[in-house]
Amino acid sequence: MNRSPRDKPTIIVEGAELSQALDETMIRNVVYGFYDEIRRDTLLGPIFNTAIRAEAWPSHLAKMCDFWSATLLRTSRYAGRPLPPHLVIPGLGEKHFRRWLTLFRTVVKRVCPPDVAAIFMARALRIAHSFRLAIAFNRGENTVQIQPIPEDSL
């Protein structure tokens, strides 16, 4: 049986009903657009292009589509652990996360309607903060002083 868009289950994200505009195609466009930006970026490109071999990019992009699908559409396609690969990157710090968030915001604002871009950004900001705390903790650093990066500071 085919479902019409109105028959889709209601998903609540950030206390609001998820926009019907957000679908797998939009997620794919965000992921692919974002990683195109990342790979060209002078700060982040060398990190990602060293960590991910050229032949592994298609697999990585598919995994990131699964991650965002699971995160926002509540699918169960992603079962990985995104933090461990980031823990082994030497020197990864706030400037990297700020650039990551800036590039991500550029892409979601270009690809998504404003309400969906806001949902993506809210989640990305929380992920960045969580990763920064975990990286600092893993390095034995004081995590008390690590504050979330506000979007308006990017």
Comma- or semicolon-separated keywords:
mainly alpha, two-stranded antiparallel ribbon, 154 residues, single chain, globular, Globin-like
What report would you give on this structure?
The chain has about 150 residues and is mostly helical. It has one domain (about 20-154): Globin-like. Helix content is about 60%, strand content about 5%. It has 6 helices and 2 strands. It has helices at about 25-40, 45-50, 55-75, 85, 95-110, 115-140; strands spanning about 10-15, 15. The protein has a two-stranded antiparallel ribbon with strand order 1-2. Strand 1 and strand 2 form a beta hairpin. Helix 1 packs across helix 2 (about 45-50). The protein starts with 11 loop residues before the first strand and ends in a 16-residue tail after the last helix. The mean pLDDT is about 90.
Question: How would you spell out the order of helices and strands?
Answer: EEHHHHHH
Would you tell me which CATH topology applies?
Answer: Globin-like
> What low-confidence regions span 5 or more consecutive residues with pLDDT below 50?
none
What's the CATH class, please? Answer: Mainly Alpha
Main sheet makeup: 2 strands, antiparallel
Report strand order across the widest sheet: 1-2
E-strand count: 2
Q: How many helical stretches?
A: 6
State the helical fraction. Answer: 55-70%
Tally of structural domains: 1
Radius of gyration: 16 Å
Q: What percent of residues are in strands? A: under 5%
